[in-house]
Amino acid sequence: MSCGCGKSGGCGSSGGPRSVVAASRTDATKRVPPTSDSNAAFDLLNRLKSETGNVAAPAPPKAHYRASQAPWWVRVFRITRIRVISQFFFFALFMFFCFVTWFSRMKGYPVSLFLEIDPLVAVATAISTHTVYRNLIWSLVLIIPTLILGRFFCNWMCPYGTLHQFFGWLFNTRRNIDKLAINRYRSIFQLKYIILIIFMVLAVFGSLQIGFLDPICLMYRTMTATVAPAADLAVDQTSRALESRGINAGWIRPLAHAPGAPDQRIFYGAWFIGAMIIVLVGMNLVIPRFFCRVLCPLGAFLGWLSRFSLWRIDRDLTRCTDCNLCLAHCEGASDPQAALRKSECFVCFNCIDDCPEDALTFRFLPVKHQKAAHGRHIISKIPEKEVAWPDLNRRRWILSGFAGVLAYPFLRLSAAVNHRGFNRKAIRPPGSVEESEFLERCIKCDQCINVCPTNVLQPSKLAHGGVEGWWTPVMDMSIGFCQLNCTLCSEVCPTGAIQKISLEKKLGLGQFAADGPIRLGTAFFNHGRCLPWAMETPCVVCEEVCPVSPKAIGTYDVQIKRWDGTLVTLNRPYMRPELCIGCGICEHECPVIDDPAVYVTAVGESRSKERSLLLRSRQT
Amino acid sequence: MSDEKDLKAHARRANAHAPQHRHSEDWPTRREFLVRLGVTAAVATGAGFLWRALHDPTGELGKPQEPTLHLKNFTVAPALGAKTLGIARGENYPQMLKMAIAAIGGIEHFINKGDVVLIKPNVAFDRSPKLGATSNPEVLAALIHLVREAGAAEVRVADNPIESPESCFAKTGIGAAARGAGAKVYLPTPSSFEMLAVPGAKLIERWPFFYTPFRGVDKVIGISPVKDHNLCHASMCTKNWYGLLGGRRNQFHQDIHNIIADLALMMKPTFVIMDGSRVLMKSGPTGGDLSDVAMGHTIVAATDQIAADAWGFSQLLGRSSELPKYLFNAQERGLGNLDWKNVAWKEEQVG
User: Which pairs from A412-420 meet CB under 8 Å and 24+ separation?
Assistant: First the structure.
């Protein structure tokens, strides 16, 4: 490279299309498969001759010869192909887990496994709660190999990374020269470290926000709120069209994510969650792996861990001709052509595959400061250097930390997440921990929302919990209701925001009889809208569906003379608050649908002392 | 740059003085002209006809046209000497079921070889069968076996529960019992409902109905638990059909007695089974406590669901008060006979 700055890393990092290729050498653009050392030495000799002006050097006849000599298994089982198989496998596994996150399919599958091995989830919750909940211990499965091998998760396992890589590949219509330019390191890639630092500082204060951008949370949330219900819609409409023409559609029905849901499942703000994935995937057309390189806090965290990795891509300066072809398919934009940035490298091995000179290897503790030795000469003009730490200088680390420190009060001073000003409709699922602890734990992955059979759980809107509580689960009883004999949400929660509870605990049976049932809130009557109270019309659906025994809704039975003179018996409902568990089936079934005459609010929820209602049910 | 400007200015001046007519070689050929004229005319005419065909002067045509479906009458002419009510008491449910059906004509009389039979249990709530809020899965399984032995080609089980359908079918044991006995279970989906016409109904002349499982069905059997109900006093055979309706069924409670009579009009089943193995005596229709349930040790088969309900009300729920009003409404409309003492009935003890 001839930019003359002398700092290969700095030169690369400044990005831009200038001095893109030094690929004027004819042999450098040829792709040559793996080779043995003796051939390479011969190659080098020729090249040295040509460099020293000996133009008459004969073209080595070995290129073709070597390709045919490589054993078939070397050509077929290239490591990059194995990587693609691994990516396919983990993507399929992820989709399978999403698909079986439903009452009749769950059986014993670890449907939240990807969240449980996600080290960012484990570390951030460990920072905010000082504990590692249940299966989060599995994150060691990723932490340890990352410390040894680097950020391999991003390009071998991450389903979101695979999604981006696939679309980047599908729409990659760039010319070769542009490919090399687009895969250079850019300073915007620092942004992910700034995001990570802000999230981590917030976690120290007890506000867990990694879920906004953690790729696994993001992908689960997208599946829940957009992809799964869209699949249901497609399946239902297709089979309806077939069935109405007398064609058996029994084979399509099982493809629905939520079989046996009598209504199409709907979600708050599905449009925004859908728009997010479209924009983020679309950004691959502008910068390949935009999300992974620029935004991903998990990638930033793994990149930081990779600083310690024992293996890394190593460039042999005695072979590298500075042709830059290693950039053509570089996923992480980690500058393999210059000073390898360990924190950016996704260990995709594309550079090794692409290098026509076999100058790149994945090497254990690579030798620093290569010298010309054993009769070899250094031919690369870019000096050997390693960039181990994330490219973020100390002032920026500190500034990001300050941003996090400031963000905490800005988020927490929002009324919605505090006891005074708590939104009455922010009703949390059964088993949820107390609100401030909930915000320490909930990663907005929306697994609980996906598994909920009645669609009552919704990703909360800004009104429910401000930005801090955005997309955390709340119950909307006009969409669904909390089914009495169901604890599915508590089973899938990876972080214990909803603690795993048994049915006995939920209903207050057996050993939990002294605690009583878990109350989600309390139901209230609005007499002004209730048919028997205000409109001389019989109703009491609420009493009929009340699932507790004895029922929490009683009736005053009166006979009245209606306005037209007819006699009518009205069962006017009232609430027995000691019995109400706030399940909301009364609200869901109330015929006054737009603003139900019976409705649940969060007051009286058993998880909170501050929002208790009855003196007698007060916990000490 | 200035050279370029001069050139442009020069060209403009030259053009201004050029003659303003086209040369003959600039015109399209005759063939091109005719083709273009023809294509334009065809597209313009086509647009006119298309718009004419789609024209909707009042806006009425553009509204969705819902096809209206009708349910056929599933009853079978009574067998010679058959009773209207067959009552079996005991503890061996398959045996009791057989005896009860034998009294009303025997299963072979109702089910022909190759029939597609739909059985409608009550699966309204997501709770254990012991709580008496739903049909007893053992009795249902026995009924499915009986129907299949009689030669039915396909047995379907369908209900639209109040709580989430999958868990209702799972926790009541009805899904497993039905599948185990060889029946096909139909759960409601958003597109399972079609507009059903019930001519002569007071409230549900047109109402969304869980229609998918009814496509190609020959016979329909209801199998319902016996339950207390705060508003209509008792939920038995007739009320069971409520579980086939969709739409805003939470409005029904405003006129519950006419709705249940409408249900008797809507559904003319082949026969009904009143599953009195357990009786929900109070806190209905949901129950939730074992102390609300009494063991009834009874199974009733009936070709008149109104008579069966009247019998169950007094004999199983043990109510001495007047019968629920919906039974009178149904009788007035000629849908059954609530005076069970005057219909042919037979009671037997099994085992």
Answer: A412/A205, A412/A207, A412/A468, A414/A465, A414/A466, A414/A467, A414/A468, A415/A466, A416/A463, A416/A464, A416/A465, A416/A466, A416/A468, A416/A469, A417/A465, A417/A466, A417/A468, A417/A469, A419/A608, A419/A610, A419/A611
pLDDT of residue B79: 87
CB contact at 8 A, A155 and A161? yes
Query: pLDDT tens across A45-94, in order?
Result: 455 444 444 444 444 444 444 444 667 777 778 899 999 999 999 999 99
A615 in a structural domain: yes
pLDDT of residue B24: 79
From B65's Cα to the closest Cα of chain A, the distance in A is 14
Q: Which CATH class is domain B68-349?
A: alpha beta
Range of the domain at A547: 518-620
As for how many domains chain A has, the answer is: 1
* Phi and psi angles of residue A73, each rounded to the nearest 5 degrees, phi first: -70, -25
Asked, for residue A616, whether it belongs to a domain, the answer is yes
Residue A463: inside a domain? no
Domain containing A584 — which CATH number?
3.30.70
Tally DSSP H helices, then E strands, for chain B: 10, 12
Are residues A546 and B187, on separate chains, in Cβ contact within 8 Å? no
Chain B residues close to A539, C-beta within 8 Å? 253-254
Contact B323, B65 (CB under 8 A): no
Interface probe for B, chosen from A544, A562, A576, A585 (most Cβ of B below 10 Å), is A544
Of B191, B229, B283, the CB nearest to A550: B283
B242, B286, B326: best mutation site toward chain A, by most A Cβ within 10 Å? B286
Residue A373's pLDDT band (cuts 50, 70, 90): low
Q: Is A236 contained in some domain?
A: no
pLDDT digits (tens, 9 = 90+) for B66-115: 778 999 999 999 988 899 999 999 999 999 999 999 999 999 999 999 99
Mean pLDDT of A115-129: 96
Task: Identify the CA nearest to B229 among candidates B325, B339, B332.
Answer: B325
